[in-house]
Amino acid sequence: MRRETDRLPARVLATIARQDNSSEVLVKLIQLAVVIVFGTLYAISPKTDAGTAFSPVPYALAGYLAVNLAGLAWAVRRGLPNWAVYASIVVDIALLMVLIWSFHIQYEQPASFYLKAPTVLYIFIFIALRTLRFQARFVVAAGLIAALGWLGLVAYVITADPADMMITRDYVEYLTSNAILIGAEFDKIISILMVTAILALALKRAHGLLVRAVSEGAAAEDLSRFFDAGVAARIRGADRPIAAGEGVKRQAAVLNIDIRGFTALAASEDADRVMTMLAEYQRRLIPIIQAHGGTIDKFLGDGIMATFGATAEADRFAADALAAMDAVMEEAARWGAPGDRLPALAVNAAVAAGEIVFGAVGDEKRLEYTVIGPAVNLSAKLEKHNKALRTRALATLDAYELARTQGYVPPREPEIATTDIPGAEAGVPVAIMHR
C-alpha cells in the first residue's frame, strides 16, 4: 500500500524534509542540554565510595557528548539519514541505561538498588524527544528500545546473584528494602509501551495534518502567483466561504494600461519573442502599480487593469492611481535604451474614479473577484481614446481633481480638455497627464 507521502509533489516532499531536518537539529540541541544536565547532576551527587570505585558514567557522558556534537554538525550540514536517527535513539537509551545501572556501583548497593532510581522517568523524555520529528516510527523505535533496555536491567538484577534473586511479593518489603517486585517492573514496561503507543498515534494524526498543511501551503503559494496580493489576503481572511453574488460598493479608481500597436508587433515576431516581451513588460510595471497600492484585477493580453481602493477602503485611491500612472509613464520612457530587453514601446494609460462594486462572480466550482461600475468602463474607453487625442495618459477631470484633494502633486500641470469618447457620454472633461 502506498504511503500518503508517495503521492506528493517533489517540492512538497522537499519542504517536509527540510522541516524534519530542522527538527533533528532541535533534537540534537536538546540532547546536548540533557548531557549537560546529566553531567552536572553526576558531578554534584554524593559518592559513598569516595570516588575510588570505577564508574562508567564520565566515559558514557563524554562519548555521548562527542556523538551528539558530531550528529549536530551532520544535521546542520547535510541532514541525518533515517539509519542515523535510529542509531541516535539507540545511543540515547543506552546512555540512560548505563547511568541507571551505575547507581548501584556509585552507592555501593546491590544491583536491585538501581531499579528504584527516579532516573527511570528520563526514559519518557527521550521518547517525547522523538515527537519533534513528526514521524511515529521514531517514537515507536524509542519506546521499544527503552522497554527492552529496562527489561534487560531487570534481567541483570535477577541473574546477577543466582543464590539470591531478591524477588519478593510483599509490597511493603519492596518499598523498604532492595527486594524487587516483578509486578512493579512489569508496570513500568507497560507504562513505557502505553505512552509510546499514545504518542505514536497522536503523531500519526499530526503527521497527516502536517502533510496536508505543507501541501496546501505550497498550493496556496503557487496559486498566489495567479492572484493579486490584495485579493489573496481577502480570500485568506474571509470569515466564511466566499460565494458568487457577494459584493460591496466602494469609491475607487481604475487604471488601464495598454501597449499601442502591440497586436501588429506580435504578428511580426515569433511566439517566444512576443511572450518574452510581454513577460518583461508585466514584470516591470506590476511592482510599480503594487508599490502605489494598486491591485491587479486582470491581464487582457498586453493590457493591465488595476484598481485602487476596491479590495479595501483607501483614503488616497485617486491620488495613488495617478501617481502610479506617472511612474508607469516614466518607466516606459526608458525602454528601448541600448542593452534594454524591451524595445521602445508606446504605452497608453487612463484613470477614472467613482463608485464601483467589488465582489465575486462565477459559480460554485469557479469564482473570480472583479469590479463593476461606470468608472471601470470609462477607464477602459478612455485608455483607447489616447490614440485619437495623440496622448499617452489621460484621466477624467473628476479623478484628477479628487486626486489633488487627496494630496496628489502632478509632475507638470495637465491640459484640461473636453472630448467625446465613443461609447460614452459626449463632452467628457479630461486631464491630459502625458503627451
Automatic annotation (TrEMBL):
Membrane-crossing segments per the record: 25-45, 57-76, 83-105, 111-129, 138-159, 179-203
GO terms, molecular function: adenylate cyclase activity
Residue stretches making up the Guanylate cyclase domain: 253-383
SUPFAM superfamilies from the UniProt entry: Nucleotide cyclase
Pfam families, per database record: Guanylate_cyc
Keywords: Membrane, Transmembrane, Transmembrane helix
InterPro entries in the record: A/G_cyclase (IPR001054), Adenylyl/Guanylyl_Cyclase_3/4 (IPR050697), Nucleotide_cyclase (IPR029787)
Biological processes annotated in GO: cAMP biosynthetic process; intracellular signal transduction
Protein name: Adenylate/guanylate cyclase domain-containing protein
